Amino acid sequence: MTITRTQVAIIGGGPSGLLLSQLLHRQGIDTVVLERQSRDYVLGRIRAGVLEQGFVQLMREAGCATRMEAEGEQHHGFMIAHQGRMDRVDLQGSANGASVMVYGQTEVTRDLYDARDEMGGEVVHLAENVRLHELTSQHPYVTYEKDGGTHRVDCDFVVGADGFHGVSRKSIPSDVLCEYEKIYPFGWLGVLSNTPPAASELIYARHERGFALCSLRSQVLSRYYIQVPLTDRAEDWSDEAFWSELKKRLPQQVADGLETGPSIEKSIAPLRSFVAEPMRYGNLFLAGDAAHIVPPTGAKGLNSAASDIHYLYQGFLAHYQKGDSAGLENYSQKALARVWKAERFSWWMTNLLHRFPEMSKTDLRLQCADLDYLFSSEAAQASLAENYVGLPY
Ligand code: RFL
Ligand code: PHB
Asked: What spacing in Å lies between the alpha carbon of 13 and ligand 1's midpoint?
């Protein structure tokens, strides 16, 4: 068995783990990232596309924002299509910043990997059977298998940034952890295509056939989603069937102008609200999807991961540079306070725009009243905008 030492062992080389590793390394704090998959596999995942200003600021602090600032798009509003109308939500009315950045998670992850390479950061790919040990002691350690050998990393702290299906959350005893979960009775079928976007801003559509979303990655790369039953399988949806169903759920003028093409990725994501409390167990800290999941409707998944990383980064900095551990002590409480607000917002936006299987005519009228209120009240729109651009850290 090889034995090495680091200050912070990070499980998971997704955006959360890489961002924290990059931020800490720039401050002279040593990390090792253990990732189960290959780099190509991680970069092949198509996920989030809308970033809050807080996330953009963290990428700047990590020295990784150059390409994002050159190629990403600032969006100052988005559209909601409903009841035969299309209304715009103006983000400039909000207090915490007037825009969001449209830049794909794949590109964020690529930029973070490039930065890790440039600094010589240690990211171990294809790390199998990662196990966390002695988490409540002053000498925690992590073991993993690679190339037929077992390896041990001794550390001060372990960060579990290994997503919803990772090993870190499962390493916390069940009598310590409280899990809150809500599973929605539908999923999102997503398609990526090399076509110009349907519109210059995102369009969220509430429709009697189900929710639809027109999003984008660039002016030549579009991302679309439609609500589908959980029993559907992506491989059963031909491109033609997808485009036809999407068009039926969009306003006529948008459908008429929609440029379609072959899909370059097609997948179904189930919708879930999930929170695990606390986010700290001894010297293990959970971050991102390892601790919480939101339905994607408010684009809060990756952004909530980023706010965890902000709190953790500040906590580690104070601990290592000033000997002040208050930030780490309060991490769980602080992170969860913001996480639950993102959970609330994502749940609300999901309820506002989706067709649930068992909706009564009263439920439908209440949903319409919610939308009518939204677009007749400056205060309601400001509240939506405030949450969409991201609550302060
Ligand atoms: P990730 O991205 O899941 O990364 C975790 C990493 O940990 C690795 N891993 C392990 N490594 C070592 N040992 C183990 N035992 C391990 N188990 C797992 C994994 O291989 C992976 O590389 O979590 P992270 O970094 O916290 O980032 C969170 C975001 O990825 C996530 O919140 C968003 O992508 C959620 N999400 C979306 N968010 C949005 O804001 N907008 C979206 O449109 C959006 N679409 C999505 C999504 C998530 C999806 N999932 C989870 C299936 C679409 C999908 C399909
Ligand atoms: C995306 O572009 O993938 C996206 C955008 C906004 C959302 C969800 C997903 O609310």
From this structure: 10
> Is 13's C-beta closer than 6 angstroms to any atom of ligand 1?
yes
Q: How far is Cα 43 from Cα 107, in angstroms, rounded to an integer?
A: 8
299, 48 Cβ separation under 8 angstroms: yes
What does pTM read for this prediction?
Answer: 0.97
Atom of ligand 1 nearest to the CA of 45: 55
CA–CA distance, 393 with 383 (Å, rounded to integer): 17
For the stretch 33-48, pLDDT in tens is: 999 999 999 999 888 8
Q: Please state, rounded to an integer, the average pLDDT across all residues of the chain.
A: 97
pLDDT digit string, tens, across residues 79-99: 999 999 999 999 986 666 689
Residue with the nearest Cα to atom 2 of ligand 2? 49
Give the DSSP letter of residue 289: G
Residues taking part in catalysis: 75, 204, 296, 300, 388
Q: Which of 169, 166, 105 is nearest to 303 (CA)?
A: 105
Taken in order of first residue, the domains within the chain and their CATH numbers are: 2-75+99-181+272-349 (3.50.50.60), 184-271+356-389 (3.30.9.10)
